[in-house]
């Protein structure tokens, strides 16, 4: 097996992958272009599934997150303009919670702390990988660190760069679908406490979610056409709260206060052609999905888990074959989850009246047929 593994990208997936391999003999090098402070400020709320909780417990990070996590006990799903709705409660499925909300910054900070105490992992922050070249069985990386260009060699290269960077010499073909939508993210206070209920509301503009978070606040994820979201992000606080109240209704009471707003462009992407070299691809670098079902990171963390497992078990397999096996193992789940999130967005975001009624009925049926509901919760929790 490989003696050294270089990981490009110290986002949540790259960092978790590093920690999953910490007990292996290989030397692990983690290269992250941002500083540690930059990542800390990302307030985007992430819903962690029970499968992710299991993995974070395995790497001994969960306990450091507990005081920053908010469990979701109930999920209320509705559609604007119809009476259909679905209610899922953790106790129905004998689970402590249906998921856990944490901010991106809190998660990455805890992972960085754990990494700083791991002997086997050497992490470089503000280290941007610029180019890559493969010579026989060795992978060479050139990166910029402290204003100087440096080179390193590794046996296995793991790409966890979120799918956005341009690195010379890494040739991946991706299939992209641009939704022309963005997501607006902020924290919101209301006059009724959230009691750990998450609200998912489908509107013809796009889905939106209010997720229970720390200090009784909600984290808002409001998606819609880019132009509309850009205008919403520029409103002053009171205008923004009025627009939100009008769009969401009064199910959670009056919206009182909102914090700084951030926006993210939305797209779907997956790999259509893998590189030839000894490169494994995980997380958003392998697939990007709409945040409607909160599955992007959870899917990426399962990539990290499966790849670490292949590295551990397939010690005698040639690296290229091990990577092929990993790609094959991840293909089905990725395809299923991309199809599922894309269908949700397409089905729930048009305003044809007949379709509107069917959608309302579908939500009510989900409530009436427990086996389907159970299957749905299992898929969201463990990806199967
Ligand atoms: C609004 C919104 C809400 C979301 N909600 C959820 C949710 O509830 N649940 C969920 O599961 N997912 C959610 N997601 C998806 C989730 O944020 C992503 O799936 C997750 O961040 C992917 O992690 P990653 O580590 O693969 O990539 P990233 O988080 O993008 O991290 C990649 C890292 O690589 C670094 N990097 C890039 N290029 C280089 C380079 N050349 N050299 C060195 N470093 C480099 C970057 O600086 C970055 O730190 C949401 C996404 C959005 C936009």
Question: What is the average per-residue confidence, as pLDDT, rounded to a whole number?
Answer: 89
Bound compounds:
flavin-adenine dinucleotide
Query: How does CATH name the architecture of the largest domain?
Result: 3-Layer(bba) Sandwich
Major beta-sheet overview: 9 strands, mixed
Assign the CATH topology of the largest domain.
Answer: FAD/NAD(P)-binding domain
Instruction: Summarize the amount of helix as a percent range.
Output: 25-40%
Which spans of ≥5 residues are poorly predicted at pLDDT below 50?
Answer: none
Q: Output the structural class.
A: alpha+beta
CATH C-level category of the largest domain = Alpha Beta
End-to-end span in angstroms?
29 Å
CATH superfamily of the largest domain: FAD/NAD(P)-binding domain
Provide the domain count. Answer: 2
What structural keywords apply?
globular; 36% helix; FAD/NAD(P)-binding domain; alpha+beta; 5-stranded parallel beta sheet; 11 helices; 9-stranded mixed beta sheet; 384 residues; D-Amino Acid Oxidase, Chain A, domain 2; 20 strands; 2 domains; binds flavin-adenine dinucleotide
Walk me through what this model shows.
With 384 residues, the chain is an alpha+beta fold. The chain has two domains: 4-65 and 104-175 and 269-345, FAD/NAD(P)-binding domain; 67-101 and 179-265, D-Amino Acid Oxidase, Chain A, domain 2, CATH 3.30.9. 36% of the residues lie in helices and 33% in strands. It has helices spanning 12-20, 36-40, 50-58, 62-65, 104-116, 226-234, 237-248, 296-313, 319-348, 353-368, 370-382; strands spanning 4-8, 27-32, 45-48, 70-72, 74-79, 85-89, 99-103, 121-125, 127-135, 138-145, 148-154, 156-159, 173-190, 197-202, 208-212, 218-225, 255-258, 262-273, 279-281, 287-288. Strands 5, 6, 13, 14, 15, 16, 17, 18 and 20 form a nine-stranded mixed sheet that branches. Helix 8 (296-313) runs antiparallel to helix 9 (319-348). It is globular and about 60 Å long. The two termini are 29 Å apart. The model has no long low-confidence stretch (mean pLDDT 89).
């Amino acid at each position: 097996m490989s003696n050294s593994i270089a990981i490009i990208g110290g986002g949540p997936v790259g960092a978790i992958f590093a920690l999953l391999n910490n007990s292996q003999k290989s030397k692990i090098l983690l290269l992250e272009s941002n500083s540690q402070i930059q990542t800390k400020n990302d307030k985007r709320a992430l819903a962690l599934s029970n499968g992710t909780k299991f993995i974070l417990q395995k790497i001994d990070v969960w306990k450091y997150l507990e005081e920053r996590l908010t469990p979701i006990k109930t999920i209320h799903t509705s559609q604007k303009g119809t009476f259909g709705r679905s209610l899922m409660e953790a106790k129905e499925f004998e689970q402590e919670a249906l998921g856990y909300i944490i901010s991106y910054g809190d998660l990455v900070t805890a992972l960085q702390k754990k990494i700083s105490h791991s002997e086997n992992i050497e992490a470089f922050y503000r280290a941007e990988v610029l180019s890559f070249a493969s010579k026989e069985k060795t992978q060479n990386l050139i990166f910029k660190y402290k204003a100087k260009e440096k080179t390193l060699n590794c046996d296995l290269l793991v790409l966890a760069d979120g799918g956005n960077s341009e690195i010379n010499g890494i040739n991946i073909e991706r299939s992209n679908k641009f939704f022309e939508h963005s997501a607006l993210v902020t924290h919101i206070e209301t006059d009724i406490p959230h009691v750990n209920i998450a609200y998912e509301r489908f509107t013809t503009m796009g889905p939106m979610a209010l997720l229970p978070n720390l200090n009784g606040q909600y984290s808002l994820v409001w998606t819609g056409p880019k132009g509309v979201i850009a205008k919403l992000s520029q409103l002053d606080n009171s205008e923004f709260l009025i627009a939100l109240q009008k769009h969401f209704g009064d199910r959670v009471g009056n919206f009182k206060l909102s914090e700084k707003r951030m926006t993210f462009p939305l797209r779907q992407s997956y790999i259509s052609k893998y590189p030839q070299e000894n490169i494994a691809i995980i997380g958003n670098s392998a697939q990007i999905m709409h945040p409607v079902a909160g599955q992007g990171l959870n899917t990426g963390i399962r990539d990290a888990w499966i790849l670490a497992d292949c590295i551990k078990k397939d010690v005698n397999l040639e690296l290229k074959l091990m990577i092929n096996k990993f790609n094959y193992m991840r293909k089905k789940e990725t395809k299923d989850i991309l199809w599922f999130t894309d269908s949700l967005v397409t089905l729930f975001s048009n305003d044809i009246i007949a379709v509107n009624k069917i959608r309302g009925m579908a939500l009510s049926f989900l409530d009436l047929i427990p086996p389907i509901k159970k299957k749905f919760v299992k898929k969201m929790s463990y990806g199967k």
